[in-house]
Amino acid sequence: MAKLAPSILSADFSKLGEEVTRVSNAGADYLHIDVMDGHFVPNISFGAGVMKSLDCYDSAPYDVHLMIEDPDKYIQDFVTEKTEFITVHQEACIHLDRTIDHIKSYGVGAGVSLNPATPVSTLENILSKVDLVLIMSVNPGFGGQSFIEETLTKVKKLVDIREKMSYNWVIEIDGGVNLKNAKTIADAGVDILVAGSAVFGANDVEGCVKEFKAII
């Protein structure tokens, strides 16, 4: 059974605490925290202060996605009691092995993400150490984009590698996920589905979370 991680990038920031409480109470498994610096991706979102402001709310654990340059400088800032995963991009890390070790040193699950054009083969020498692999199914930077179907080929490759090597990391997908394609994505072997505008843009946010959960 796959899990759901609503991305707060698409939430109403004027009432962010209320928004995360709504999706968490409705059954969301994680809160996906998209951090953008305007350099690695062409958009700026928010920093650790905004994320930590949610600590006092009854919410799901944090699934932190750092879409930033030189992430090692900021990893510690995103570690709280609610942080389950911190994911960095293969394309942003010069010394990815060292960065993975840095994340794990805080007792947090370490993830690595691939942009749509980056092949799975670039992770060959790190897959024995990670806890999560995130496949971007849109070009990162903005919400509301359409799902890139070809990324499911990457998912299949990861599923095959995981089975062959008996790895236990989870596969996550982010970008263009909605109620229409959620089952296909989950059936492909994805363990965590990130959905932003599909959840927070729904007329009935709580109902949408429950529908996602029923589908996946």
Automatic annotation (TrEMBL):
The keyword Flavoprotein does not apply. One of its GO terms (molecular function) is metal ion binding. SUPFAM superfamilies: Ribulose-phoshate binding barrel. A divalent metal cation binds at residues 32, 34, 65, 174. Its cofactor is Zn(2+); Co(2+); Mn(2+); a divalent metal cation. This is Ribulose-phosphate 3-epimerase. One of its GO terms (cellular component) is cytoplasm. Its EC number is 5.1.3.1. Pathway: Carbohydrate degradation. Transmembrane segments: none annotated. The active site is at 34 (proton acceptor), 174 (proton donor). Substrate binds at residues 7, 65, 141-144, 174-176, 196-197. The lineage of its organism: Bacteria, Bacillati, Bacillota, Clostridia, Peptostreptococcales. One of its GO terms (biological process) is pentose catabolic process. Keywords: Carbohydrate metabolism, Cobalt, Isomerase, Manganese, Metal-binding, Zinc. It comes from Aminicella lysinilytica. It comes from the Bacteria. The keyword Metal-binding applies. Binds 1 divalent metal cation per subunit. Belongs to the ribulose-phosphate 3-epimerase family. It catalyses: D-ribulose 5-phosphate = D-xylulose 5-phosphate. Catalyzes the reversible epimerization of D-ribulose 5-phosphate to D-xylulose 5-phosphate.
